[in-house]
Amino acid sequence: MKMLRFGLFENAQANDSGTATWRHPANERDHFESLDYWVKIARMCEDARLDFLFLADAWGWSEVDGERLPISSEEGLDLPRLDPAIVAAALVAATTRLGLVVTGSTLLEQPYSFARRMATLDHISKGRVGWNVVTTGTAETAVEAFGMPMVAHDKRYDMADDFMEVVYKLWEGCWEPDALQRDKAGRYADPAKVHRIEHEGPFFRSRGYGNTSYSPQGTPVLFQAGSSDRGRKFGGTHGECIFLGGSPSKLPDQVRAIRAEAVAAGRAADSLKIMSAFSCVVGATREEAQRKFELILESQRPEVAVASYAMFTGLDLSSYAPDTPMTELHTEMSQTQVQRFAGLTVGDVLKDWHAYGVRGKPVVGTAEDVADAMCELAERADLDGFLLTPVVQPMSTVDFVEQVLPILRERGVAAQDYQGESLRERLVGTPSPVLRDDHPGAAYRAQLAAAR
Ligand SMILES: Cc1cc2nc3c(=O)[nH]c(=O)nc-3n(C[C@H](O)[C@H](O)[C@H](O)COP(=O)(O)O)c2cc1C
């Protein structure tokens, strides 16, 4: 069995993933605005030798008929948040080896300034940064806030392709890795190694010179989680680490489909690392774990489900009869969150969403049960690792690192220590910190060489 990789999914807000567990007595993330919270979590990840801390992000909020529901504020469901890139910058100083993955939207960011922000993080962290590329499923309210017109689902991915081209040009094609000489008796940078970029795309234009020099990884490690047909094509083309959510029974097919997209894009099937989101509730006995899970469910108000489903899809499930088949619903927001419930009714989905939100069902049991489930799933679905999606923080992470991880280490499927300096070497297994040659971003480097 492969050596598994692990990341911790976090979110700089009180709740995430469509549930609202902030009232649980063990939860500390209601104080997510405090740096102390983030340093504690990051150090816990680093001490446990998790590969990375993943900072999710969203723009927008849940709205029904043009109004934000009071429950969204009462439960801290969507707003407020912090900027994940700034949290990551603070955590660079609190850690030395941990990867830090920042979510950034190709719909709402500007590629030129975004490229600089990510390169800055990559420089100051010495190559420990990743970018979770999102097209923003919660687009309807977000574009209003930005004063932009709405962009339909598949077109957002066309926009993302164009965005990638600009940032590849800036990261890979502008400053050569050895452009800086810092020779006090000579010159600071070699002008022959600093190239002008030109980009005239369907959505973005950029001309001139990148604001930052070539960073340790050049391009940050690219993470992606789109699961619609268009999202998978995008992920197969650009993603180096793909996250899958949803049902374990569908994972093997999803993994095969993503690897096939990568091959169609001219990449090696195993150059993508595929990780599944994974939740667990651990107890000394199965009964204790079940009771622990029940207390988590009891800490949440059932009304949260309607508001939170609306945030992901723009659909108000309370306005449909409970027996309406989900196949009758359509959204231009996250299609995955409608398609994954095919065969169920609106009433079924409201119950499911209350318990799990966008997360898969947690494995509830002893640490041995959880380790068994992870090994079985990884083998059956050909996974490279797991993105741990906690239900109550920091309790979920403490339980995993103290109880489950030692078992996985004993079984020889989790590394004892970090290997490789940069996040890319460690996670993707590249021989150097930069993109593999078969990655589309590397072509911008090759063009540069050809032009010389
Ligand atoms: C594990 C995981 C983490 C995700 N994190 C984010 C996130 O931080 N921000 C975001 O806007 N979307 C996030 N998503 C959603 C995906 O980027 C994507 O929009 C979603 O899977 C729907 O895909 P589709 O648009 O191709 O249908 C995440 C999805 C998964 C499975």
Automatic annotation (TrEMBL):
<dbReference type="InterPro" id="IPR016215">
    <property type="entry name" value="NTA_MOA"/>
</dbReference>
<keyword id="KW-0503">Monooxygenase</keyword>
<dbReference type="InterPro" id="IPR036661">
    <property type="entry name" value="Luciferase-like_sf"/>
</dbReference>
<comment type="similarity">
    <text>Belongs to the NtaA/SnaA/DszA monooxygenase family.</text>
</comment>
<protein>
    <submittedName>
        <fullName>NtaA/DmoA family FMN-dependent monooxygenase</fullName>
        <ecNumber>1.14.-.-</ecNumber>
    </submittedName>
</protein>
<feature type="binding site">
    <location>
        <position position="153"/>
    </location>
    <ligand>
        <name>FMN</name>
    </ligand>
</feature>
<dbReference type="Pfam" id="PF00296">
    <property type="entry name" value="Bac_luciferase"/>
</dbReference>
<dbReference type="GO" id="GO:0004497">
    <property type="term" value="F:monooxygenase activity"/>
</dbReference>
<feature type="binding site">
    <location>
        <position position="57"/>
    </location>
    <ligand>
        <name>FMN</name>
    </ligand>
</feature>
<dbReference type="InterPro" id="IPR051260">
    <property type="entry name" value="Diverse_substr_monoxygenases"/>
</dbReference>
<feature type="domain" description="Luciferase-like">
    <location>
        <begin position="19"/>
        <end position="380"/>
    </location>
</feature>
<feature type="binding site">
    <location>
        <position position="228"/>
    </location>
    <ligand>
        <name>FMN</name>
    </ligand>
</feature>
<keyword id="KW-0560">Oxidoreductase</keyword>
<feature type="binding site">
    <location>
        <position position="227"/>
    </location>
    <ligand>
        <name>FMN</name>
    </ligand>
</feature>
<keyword id="KW-0288">FMN</keyword>
<feature type="binding site">
    <location>
        <position position="157"/>
    </location>
    <ligand>
        <name>FMN</name>
    </ligand>
</feature>
<dbReference type="InterPro" id="IPR011251">
    <property type="entry name" value="Luciferase-like_dom"/>
</dbReference>
<feature type="binding site">
    <location>
        <position position="103"/>
    </location>
    <ligand>
        <name>FMN</name>
    </ligand>
</feature>
<keyword id="KW-0285">Flavoprotein</keyword>
<dbReference type="GO" id="GO:0016705">
    <property type="term" value="F:oxidoreductase activity, acting on paired donors, with incorporation or reduction of molecular oxygen"/>
</dbReference>
